[in-house]
Amino acid sequence: MLIFALLFAGLGILGALVGLGELGHPVGAHGVQAYGWGLTVNAIALAVYFLFMWTQRYHGRRT
Q: Where do transmembrane segments lie in this chain (predicted)?
């Protein structure tokens, strides 16, 4: 699970860069910033979830 948390944290960084306009370019008349921010929010939420599950398993507590 730690691997998935790191993967989604990396996707969060990528999404933040797209959201800030550092990566990507407008497709037609549409910008990709909304996609970047959506990717960031989802990736950070998944990374936090997987880290939480990993710490619960590491400490031997299950919910």
A: 34-54
